[in-house]
UniProtKB/TrEMBL annotation:
Keywords: Iron, Iron-sulfur, Metal-binding, S-adenosyl-L-methionine
Name of the protein in question: Radical SAM core domain-containing protein
Any matching Pfam family: Radical_SAM
Keyword Iron applies: yes
PANTHER family: PQQA PEPTIDE CYCLASE, RADICAL SAM DOMAIN PROTEIN
Listed SUPFAM superfamilies: Radical SAM enzymes
InterPro entries in alphabetical order: Aldolase_TIM, Radical_SAM_PqqE_MftC-like, rSAM, rSAM_sf
Cofactor: [4Fe-4S] cluster
S-adenosyl-L-methionine keyword on record: yes
Provenance organism: Paralimibaculum aggregatum
Length: 345
């Protein structure tokens, strides 16, 4: 599954901590004031010592990119994010960070920008609206603070992209958000269609002050928009139909995104998994147990990272399971291409 002869692209959850309470996030009790679900979050994190141990000059030289995102936490909430990024970019590694952007102060962001700029690293700021709407989904975050942080970061010459999930309550602000992104110096603007709505297109939740609200599916999709002469505009029907056609590249019925990108996933507990979708799932546990593989063998606090990646089940057992079509997560995520759709403008 993972190939030491090709550059690695690691996907790492630095921490399961977060300052926000986005209603559709698996860490959030959306019907209980968007509080944190303590049954899935244990406030763990990876730190500088873990990266110094595993990202040696040798492994760093064979690493194309380290992407900090994750299932349960925001990398910005990790105590040593800045030190970890400085270590990696000192060793020539390109980094990508996906965050809500609302923690820390502008001087911290300026230091982060200087570290990121060294290797052309990229920040994905998830801002789903403007001052009156971003906090309706990114509960507990503040638009003005995010923009202040982003400005200090971009000022250093480091790269940043604005990522925007479309809802009914923010779709009328897409054009204005795009204009602001360009004025602030963001180099990319990506619209995202979430797949987390059920067929009814509604998602009730409770704000921290007790007020009940409902997210509604948007009337626009990311593919409805086009970049035209430096402005964003609604696409024609023909443009939209072309963009909506999904790429289909089946390999034995499963097109493993993680194998294609040579991209292992590492959780904030230090567990190495095939990808973020199977990480920590009941199916992953049964798969490992079925092959008598104990979880301690896959923790980077017990063994060198690359040794784990080249061992089973990654060496051959996953490929055999895809052939037998025995992993429902793989079929669902990489068989039918059912993912959030994106349109990078
Ligand atoms: S910012 Fe990310 S990790 Fe935090 S609650 Fe929102 S989706 Fe979850
Ligand atoms: S869900 Fe399965 S097939 Fe898809 S990236 Fe993860 S391990 Fe690969």
């Amino acid at each position: 599954m993972f190939d030491p002869a090709r550059p690695y692209s690691f996907h790492i959850e630095l921490t399961d901590k977060c300052n926000a309470g986005c209603p559709m996030c698996p860490r959030t009790l959306h019907l209980d004031r968007c509080r944190t679900d303590r049954s899935v979050v244990s406030n763990v994190e990876l730190g500088l010592a873990d990266f110094q141990r595993h990202f040696t000059p040798d492994l760093s030289a064979r690493t194309a990119e380290v992407i900090f995102g994750g299932a349960y936490g925001d990398p910005l909430a990790a105590t040593e994010l800045l030190e970890v990024v400085e270590h990696l970019t000192d060793h020539g590694v390109r980094v990508a960070i996906a965050t809500n952007g609302s923690l820390r102060k502008p001087d911290w962001w300026a230091r982060m920008g200087r570290a990121m700029a060294r290797t052309g690293s990229r920040l994905e700021l998830h801002i789903d609206g403007l001052e009156d709407t971003n906090g309706l989904y990114r509960v507990g975050t503040f638009y003005d603070k995010i923009v202040e942080n982003a400005a200090a970061y971009i000022e250093t010459g480091a790269r940043a992209e604005w990522h925007f999930i479309i809802f009914r309550h923010n779709e009328h602000q897409i054009e204005e958000a795009f204009r602001r992104s360009r004025a602030l110096g963001f180099e990319g603007f990506t619209l995202i269609d979430t797949v987390r709505f059920g067929p009814e297109g509604r998602f009730p939740y409770q704000m921290p002050d007790g007020k009940m609200r409902e997210l509604e599916a948007p009337t626009r999709k990311s593919a409805d928009f086009r970049l035209d002469g430096g402005e964003i505009r609604l696409a024609s029907r023909e443009d939209a139909a072309e963009a909506a056609a999904p790429p289909v590249r089946p390999i034995e019925g499963i097109d493993c995104k993680s194998a294609a990108r040579n991209s292992p996933y590492i959780s904030a507990h230090g567990q190495v998994s095939a990808c973020c979708w199977v990480a920590g799932s009941g199916e992953e546990s049964s798969f490992f147990a079925g092959h008598r593989l104990g979880p301690e063998r896959y923790n980077l606090r017990s063994r060198p990272l690359e040794e784990i990646m080249l061992d089973e089940p990654f060496a051959s057992l996953y490929a055999a399971a895809w052939k037998a079509d025995s992993l429902a997560t793989c079929r669902h995520k990489c068989g039918r291409m059912r993912r959030n759709r994106r349109n990078a403008l």
